[in-house]
Predict the structure.
Amino acid sequence: MSKKIQQVKIVEGLSALDNQRHFRMRLFIEGICIGLLTGCVVSSYRWILEKCNDMRPLLYAQFTWDKWYNFLFYCLLILLISYVLYRIVKREPMCTGSGIPQIKGILLGKMHMNWVSVLICKYIGGILAIGSGLSLGREGPSVQLGASLAQGISRTRNRSRMEERFLLVSGASAGLAAAFSAPLAGVIFGFEELYRNFSPLVLMGSAIASVLAVAITHIVFGNGPIFSIGMLKMLPLSMYGWLAVLGVFIGILGFFYSKILFMIMDWYDNQKILKGMWKPALPLFMAVILGFYLPQVLAGGDRLADSLVRLQFGIGLLCVLYIVKMLFTMFAFGAGVPGGLFLPMLVLGAVSGGIFNHMLAFIGVTDPVYAPNFVVFAMAAYFGAVVKAPITGAALLMEMTGSFEHMQALIYVSMIAYLVADWMGGKAVYDALMVRRLRAQNKKEEAKEALSYRRVIMEKVVGNGCIADGKMLKSVQWPNSTLIVNVKRGEDTFVPNGDTRLQAGDYLYILSKNENIELLQDMLTETAKYTQEDK
């Protein structure tokens, strides 16, 4: 980006702050476009993956001894798919894995993407990987597809970097909402996991984008919940003690899930045998074998979660399903092909809930009528423990199961699982994946990105108890080349000076270097450790 174009974008970003009503309306209109586009793209993506799931049993029915050549042809097709996935990932490294860590990195100014290339490669690669049976989810790719479409709208309309960040959150929120037909969870995910603070400007685009994206999915798939759990009985308060035990149980499982995931990813990085197309070939042929013996663990696994409520599974089979599903997911994700962790993670939570219900039934402290409750609550808890976004997990399960009257129990068990995993030292999986990717990122790419966005305008909120809370602007040690250009306090907007005393809840519009985004985020959100002199 030339210096002149960059200066024009900065001026446009500053001028947008002078008329925020007009700016909010523009974000709302752009959110409509993002929601409609994301809804169409993600709906087609979901539809193709569901057709692949429908066709897989029919395909395996053709693999008989007298038709051995069908199986041989399928193995050759798997090799071809492995090669195509390898070429896709090599051509566009930003399309690997979930896509959520990449979006987080872009919002922090640490990564950049070519939206056209990512959109095409993620769409095709995700269909090939998940459609072939790999235990990966559609939600991560859907988030990145939505964000890519949002960036496309931003680039074609020549928007400022600040506005592009707002639109990226809107697109990502719409992508998650469309993947699970969960508009509220999409909006909460945008704030809790991506933007990391509340902003009315972000809300303008993300809310309408999520609602419209889900409206498109309802046209295609109907308006029923993703999981066919049925009506859940209200869990009596006398059972909340055991619900807390469930949270502890899931928190421990979630901690070890993250540990084992990164161990397998390290193994992939350090081994010398599986290179090129053979890296994705390993989990693809694992899928071929599991298709004969344990087809329930293939693909995302939403149908397995449904069957846990309708059918009776013994605790031994549930333990086998948990271990195989977990390891298969990790080997598939570690191969670096396009696909997410979200849905397989929820399914592992559902299986864990089934195991926990069996243990309670064994000691005679629960009624079988509450078995579906523990399956649903464990899904939310597993998400809270691994992703460390408990409110998103609770909202997601409410919408995915239609269990809105169980909000209290869902938040309760999610928070306990989150606290247990955090106490054990577990890291938020998408943050850890982002850091891992940044460490492996080529130095030349980092230099190229820093050159592309030398100075940006960003919106940050002064957090309660942060180092800027209650201090004058001139008393805060801001990063080099940082200027506070505007402050929004309630409905009032003004240009500050050095004597302006900041308050918790102030929205700051900051002009700074791209590489300062993460530092400013920490300064304005983390609680300050005041010295006696500060007091």
Observations:
- The first strand starts at residue 455 and ends at 461.
- The two ends are 45 Å apart (CA to CA).
